[in-house]
Amino acid sequence: MIVEEAGERIAVSTRIQEDGQLVYDFLWIDGPGESDYGFTLGLSTHPAGAPQPTLTDDELEQHARQFVRAFFAPDGIGPSDFPDFVAARRDDGR
């Protein structure tokens, strides 16, 4: 799934960790830095035999959008740690 927010694209994928827990990886396509940039979201562990908790597409989209908005916020990590990236995005009209 690809989520778009303010011209930024976040790829969302799932994987199972060694302990069997489902996690969601959010990878910023063409994001800042020289390597992959994003975050991983896991849900609380569940008792053996219980159904694995999951997130809906709407919930995944909400997490991705909040991530982008928080990054570009005046007090976010973007302006403080990636000022050139933020300036370039503003120059692009994003």
Average pLDDT works out at: 89
Helicity range: 25-40%
- Secondary-structure-based class equals alpha+beta
Number of domains: 1
Spatial strand arrangement across the major sheet: 1-2-3-4
E-strand count: 4
How do the SSEs run, as a string of H and E?
EEEEHHH
Q: Give the biggest beta sheet.
A: 4 strands, antiparallel
- Helix count, per DSSP? 3
Shape: elongated
Percentage of residues in DSSP E strands: 25-35%
The stretches of 5 or more residues where confidence is low (pLDDT under 50) are none
Q: How much is the radius of gyration in Å?
A: 15 Å
Report the end-to-end length measured between terminal Cα atoms. Answer: 21 Å
Verbal overview:
With 94 residues, the protein is α+β, with helices and mostly antiparallel strands. 32% of the residues lie in helices and 28% in strands. It has a four-stranded antiparallel β-sheet with strand order 1-2-3-4. A hairpin with a 2-residue loop joins strand 1 and strand 2 (8-16). The longest helix has 16 residues, at 57-72.
